[in-house]
Design brief:
homodimer, 5-stranded antiparallel sheet, 535 residues
Chain lengths: 535, 535
């Protein structure tokens, strides 16, 4: 694959063309000004060429020169992932720890060459997919004497289609939309749509165990990985393509979630779907949030396996789906390539109504065999727009601090878990960001044994002091989540941001086990140091 | 838990009361005599007290004396698993490598004590669940200087029920029926029914990634493990109870399939179901086996997630479901605690009919909300009886060699995979067991991307030479399965029997990775040596 001609943005998700315009930023600033009651202007974006970087601490060998570069803008655009703390540093021109070079291997041989160069010279090797990490997963740690960011954007092809098994072999660097574009002519789809979908890659999804489109049953990319190929400094590690197996601990499951510390994922066989043509959806309102979550539990425990089963609390439903701020919105959706979803949606709707969900019969939208989308109008559609319309750059540096944290917890702990989180995080939020700060919750995925709650917070922050305030809230949130029995992340990954929470939640001794595994794959410890385990 | 009062059988699955009677064995001998055309009598069962054993090679410390014993019959009943090669050796009184002692820890402290004793004295520690391993998973290798079998039968309680999340914490030594008995009053069920169900344990299921009741979607015990606790010589390893997570490589998935080489599973939180009251089933016949398997593919790819979706080839359907030997039998079943299965079965039945499946409309049995079982009559019921009626002891030593091997393969490789297996294994079978030998296939589980075929073979063998002939066939089968792209096991585990095939199918370097993990958990290498990795 040739290198994409378009340049990545250095201060928002995606490419330069994805950057919000000056007008959009001004409009956002105006809205924030109204909310905060004082005049705020968007920060100016520095000229990329004028950003100061330390001198590269290594020389790229000439044999690697065709695909490894120390070019200024390449180093800039590979310094940060997509978290607001990073984008804010970027838009302010702070790049204290850029990679010394960026590699764009175009094939397995080049991937081998660059990783071997790193390994034999103790150069840190940072795997780079789409650059949307929100957990500090791709930064160069200060301890590294030198570092290369290995961007997989030239290894991004669809290699093989298996129509009979509904599977495809794809290279790790393929972006979500490119994958779907390549599959569409074959009538197939992966249907894995993390919020970062336009800018994130298959390799990144696998490395971070990303959560996708399906709110129930097969929620993580894990379920769609049929086999995977990874290059470590010790060589190629390739699992066998199998629909299922019970032979020893699964090698795929060792790679899934390894976040680049064992090797670089180069390609994978993925399980696909036929494109859905039967669809059904429903939005139902609840005046009682807790009752609404009970309805979600009842639906998921009935095992009808809806593709969508989410609930937004009153704050979230007000901001993102146009509700009045007092009611929750439960979103239900079914889809299939082969089978009418009428029975499923009606059965689920009945459960929702039994639990006090408010909707009219005509709110149940069914498109049988037409392929027509049913979840794009009304409240459900409004929510969908706000979800896919994420633009990380638009609100940067406007004196409004926003972030999210997400987890999963068993139902027996719910809703006391929710109350605990709102109490602990809410009090820190009010203390740090003031009484006008907000905390909202939705479920992104649900299981018969528990939900995956996703919290969003927002509030005014003194411009220039975002990091300090963010950290106080984030620390409180991480501590509360783990103390109350949740996981530090359901689908955002661990990275460097969640490492201490993760260490608390994992079994005693797991850290040593992972180090031992890493030592087998990466004896020099060059791969993504500081992620998951200490370097 | 007190020690079960009933004694295990030393020559068949389960307890002494499970042993076939002299009459049953005589009847079986008569049937075999008819098939082989010569008079065959069942071998006599030796008196357990008269079986010769080597002297125990260790002294049990007095502090462990309350739950560790070197008693003769205990050592005998813990020498072998449930494979016919083992049972045949047992009924002939050959016990060359018994454990030197057997432990029945009654609590965590005792489990710690015995494992610490083993670890500090380099005594091999062989975890023992229900003793039904069919892959030589619990034997004492010749290389061990001394060995203790650690039987978990006294750690077999239901510890906690979580009705809201539908989960339970159970000790690893609980047997299938005892677990279901304990859950029944709570309206819950695990519904995990491997063929060894009456005699196998939760700990064994987890250690071996056993395959269960559900033919689609959640096929392995893996999907029902919410968290797990394991004791290794380095201490307790306990994962957090979570409905889902994307935080790093899953620690549960490292324990699942570890077959006792990292530690001894002591308890687990399991995801449960409400007992089904809506059921539906159908048996359909196909005159064309390949066409029948295509129907299975179409049904599983429609993602209706039937609980049962199996197909028996003409030989299997003839022997075990009473068909005429020319037609295949497709078995379809749906069940739910909450939702009518009428729509699902009718939709699936239509697909089956489209592919040429033969059945009458009244063959579609639906029991809506009554709890009545629908799969117990007719052809489907006949098959069910033959599946659950397995009695490993009844045909022992009658000059008929029978065994099974099972795998999984993607659909694009099917049916050429089937043809390859039948060719390779069939020719060795005919060579070794003669022209009257049979080879049959069924699918035990199916996935959207491939089936899990299960092969059974049978044929006459000179009494006393079973092992040699069995080995020739088994080696050919293992080689064919792995060479043709399958897994050496879909749900029977690896043990010592499948180790070489497993090594061939797993990624290069995986062996070293597992050794490194084992070294972290078990630095002395005392746990189940020779399983998965070399000692």
């Amino acid at each position: 694959m040739p290198r994409p001609t378009e340049r990545r943005s250095f201060w928002t998700w995606g490419y330069v063309s994805d950057e919000p315009s000056a007008e959009e930023r001004a409009k956002a600033a105006k809205l924030v000004s109204q909310r905060l009651g004082r005049e705020i202007s968007p920060p100016s974006v520095p000229n990329i060429e004028e950003i100061k970087l330390r001198v590269p601490r290594l020389d790229v060998p000439s044999r690697l020169g065709e695909f490894v570069t120390s070019e200024h803008s390449e180093r800039i655009t590979h310094t940060y992932g997509g978290h607001s703390t990073e984008l804010l540093a970027a838009i302010r021109g702070h790049f204290p720890s850029p990679p010394d070079a960026v590699a764009h291997p175009r094939n397995s041989d080049e991937l081998e060459s660059v990783l071997e160069w790193c390994s034999t010279n103790s150069i840190c090797a940072i795997p780079y997919g789409g650059g949307t990490s929100v957990v500090w997963g791709l930064n160069v740690p200060e301890k590294c004497d030198s570092a290369v960011s290995i961007d997989m954007d030239c290894m991004s092809g669809l290699l093989e289609i298996d129509q009979v098994s509904r599977a495809a072999k794809v290279e790790a660097g393929i972006l979500g939309p490119h994958l779907e574009d390549a599959l569409r002519p074959h009538g197939l789809t992966l249907r894995h749509f993390p919020q970062s979908f336009p800018w994130s890659t298959v390799g990144g999804w696998i490395a971070t165990r990303s959560g996708g489109h399906y709110a129930t049953n097969h929620t993580h990319i894990d379920d769609f990985v049929e086999s995977v190929t990874m290059l470590s400094p010790q060589g190629w590690f390739q699992s066998r393509r199998l629909p299922g197996s019970g032979a020893g601990p699964s090698p795929d499951r060792l790679i899934l979630g390894s976040e680049g510390i064992f090797g670089i994922i180069s390609d994978a066989w993925l399980r696909l779907q036929k494109r859905p043509v039967y669809r059904a959806s429903l939005g139902a309102m609840f005046s009682d949030w807790e009752k609404g979550t009970e309805a979600v539990r009842a639906v998921v425990q009935a095992k009808l396996w809806p593709a969508n089963l989410r609930i937004l609390d009153p704050v979230e439903a007000g901001v993102n789906a146009g509700l009045d701020g007092t009611r929750s919105l439960l979103i239900l959706g079914f889809e299939s390539a082969d089978v009418s979803q009428q029975f499923s949606i009606e059965t689920a709707a009945e459960i929702v109504r039994d639990y006090g969900g408010e909707f009219e019969q005509e709110d149940i939208l069914v498109a049988d065999g037409t392929g027509r989308a049913t979840g794009r109008g009304g409240k459900v559609g409004a929510w969908r727009q706000s979800f896919i319309g994420v633009n990380a750059g638009v609100g940067l540096g406007l004196g409004l601090l926003s972030d999210t944290f997400e987890t999963a917890i068993t139902w027996d702990q719910w809703p006391s878990f929710d109350a605990y989180i709102r109490d602990k995080v809410g009090s820190v939020l009010r203390e740090v960001l003031g009484e006008s700060s907000t905390l909202a919750c939705r479920f992104t995925h649900v299981y018969p044994d528990g939900p995956a709650p996703y919290y969003s917070f927002s509030g005014p922050v003194p411009i220039g002091e975002e990091f300090k305030h963010w950290k106080a809230i984030k620390d409180a949130a991480s501590e509360a989540v783990v103390d109350a029995g949740g996981t530090i992340t359901h689908h955002h990954a661990v990275g460097r941001m969640h490492k201490s929470g993760w260490t608390k939640q994992t079994p005693l001794g797991y850290d040593q086990v992972l180090r031992a595994i890493k030592k087998e794959f990466d004896p020099q410890g060059v791969l993504n140091p500081g992620v998951l385990v200490d370097p």
